[in-house]
């Protein structure tokens, strides 16, 4: 599939709909999307760090290095739910009449609640909430979205 704006918007919508769960659900146990380098386990309510596991012995050193580079790239980007919320807000700016936007914005507001959180999470969720509240306030999706998720925090 060519990398068109339409294919990216469709991908964002599908990704918001679910990760390892059914496409129309968000995993309540927060097994959704990817985390960034600023991920703070206190926001995850787990209080634990991700364990370092050795690579399986059947991987070559080149495959291990490639995976490490990919993981570093993911960690250097923003977390999944923050990224998806920002992409949805951008989509709403570019295509204000898109019929899928109310549901996508609803999911973008809700997504940070079920993904890795950091200091940018509240801003991302609130931006999607503001668009949904302003432009789609009489939809079923706005009615399902009484508030946004995340909290403001200052990095030290």
Figure out the total of helices: 7
Unreliable residue stretches: 43-50
**What separation lies between the terminal Cα atoms?**
43 Å
Spell the H/E element sequence.
HHHHHHH
Largest sheet entry: none
Give the overall form: elongated
Describe this structure in words.
This protein is an all-alpha fold and 156 residues long. The chain has one domain. It contains seven helices and no strands. It has helices at 5-17, 41-44, 61-76, 80-94, 101-110, 121-135, 140-143. The chain is elongated and about 55 Å long.
Q: Can I get a quick summary?
A:
It contains seven helices and no strands.
Write out key terms for the chains shown.
49% helix, 7 helices, 156 residues, mainly alpha
Task: Show the helix and strand layout.
Blueprint: H1 5-17, H2 41-44, H3 61-76, H4 80-94, H5 101-110, H6 121-135, H7 140-143
Helix pairs in contact: 1-4, 4-5, 4-6, 5-6
């Amino acid at each position: 599939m060519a990398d068109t704006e339409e294919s990216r918007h469709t991908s964002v919508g599908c990704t918001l709909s679910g990760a390892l769960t059914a496409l129309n659900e968000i995993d309540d146990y927060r097994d959704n999307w990817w985390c960034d380098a600023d991920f703070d386990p206190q926001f995850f309510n787990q209080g634990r760090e991700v364990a370092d596991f050795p690579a399986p012995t059947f991987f070559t050193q080149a495959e291990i290095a490639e995976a490490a580079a990919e993981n570093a790239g993911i960690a250097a980007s923003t977390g999944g739910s923050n990224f998806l919320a920002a992409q949805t807000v951008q989509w709403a700016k570019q295509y204000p009449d898109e019929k899928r936007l109310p549901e996508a914005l609803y999911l973008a507001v809700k997504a940070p609640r079920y993904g890795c959180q950091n200091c940018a999470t509240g801003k991302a969720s609130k931006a999607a909430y503001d668009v949904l509240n302003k432009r789609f306030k009489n939809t079923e999706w706005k009615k399902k979205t009484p508030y946004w998720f995340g909290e403001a925090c200052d990095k030290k």
